[in-house]
Here is the input.
Amino acid sequence: MLPDLFDKWLPPEYAGSVARIIQSALEASDPRAAVRKALALSGNVLQVGGQTLNLESYGRIRLVGAGKASQAMLRGALDALGDRISGGVIIAKHLEEQPENAGRHMERFQLLTGGHPVPNAQSIAGAQALADFLQQGRADDLVICLISGGASALMSLPYPNISLEELQTLTRLLLSCGANIGEMNTLRKHLDRVKGGGLARMAYPAQVVTLILSDVIGSPLDVIASGPTVADATTFAQALSILDKYHLRDRVPESILQTLESGAKGEIEETLKPGDPALRNAIHHLVASNPQAAGAALEQAKAEGFNALLLTTYLQGEASQVGVVLASILHQVHASGQPLQRPACIVAGGETTVTLHGSGRGGRNQEMALGASFLLSGLPRAALLTLGTDGEDGPTDAAGALVTGETLARSLEKGLDPQAALEANDSYPFFSALDALVVTGPTGTNVNDLVFLFAF
Here is the structure.
């Protein structure tokens, strides 16, 4: 669908180039290829992230994984290790068709799904299945853990006194108040038995190798997927302070508040901390991240003849306001040829947030584009494209949206009210009516968001 979108709204001589730039970013973060590259096997010697493991030292290789990219990561592990993997459990958001080379392997794996961005009953059932699998392990196991973004919701095992409905209430409150992913995951880690190093505890004393596809700015391993196999520096007290910051202490379910307060008093065991024996033999290796995808897009843009610049991979803030700032950069390009002369492609990566004021449909990338459309109005031969690399933006089937200098005028001709759409957080119907949604379908990867600024 993307080539049709670009043919319709971009200068025809550039439509193909833009499509290839977007595709290069997604290919650079391909989970299957990233995991296959990370697991270098020679005979019985496995090299992972600069560390060497002799497979003769282990009785079995077992595999667990969770996240939007976990099934594709599984394919990469099978490419590298094949029949050496004795079995495993994977929790994804969508299950794809079985890979052509894995038919003989799949009967050894439980392929499960969970809810996202709000956990559901399948999230809990999947996390329990994964926990049961790990707790049946042996000391001489090698456990390969495949972690990618989305796992915080897809895999959830709250403390017994916290119901699914109460956990869902907390998640919705956090999604609507503007909390960033680090803050959200600090709370999740202190209410859940698989997060904050919980999986490492379950796998101990087996050797654990974690391969991570990052969807978090800066790729802090304790934040990605709520750090199920790494040490956690946050505390119950910090989790309570986040509730206070967003005035949620009186709005969260009582069971959640009681759990956090009990933990702050030392009545519940803290998350896994640095120096814990469960981490003694742990290996963690980052296989793909947002800078990789952004860098690939930058190189492709240069190959297509654009003057290209990477603005940042730490883009964050309120989505609509970030859109205004990015649109102002395109104005600068138009007015002075700074920071780049035309044809220009400026790439930014990161993750914005949305504070909900309405009950409309959309996501942070669509809202960013809508916010940009006002300032972009009337600017010639310019475009801003937002993209969630997983192909899904919020609870919608769009990855983002495309806006140009003509977007606002076209919306008014159609009788749309862009300001009302922004105030109601209703960007999806707005862009759908304009045929300007970026729809890729689930991509199989998840390395955060990308924004592309074009001046043709």
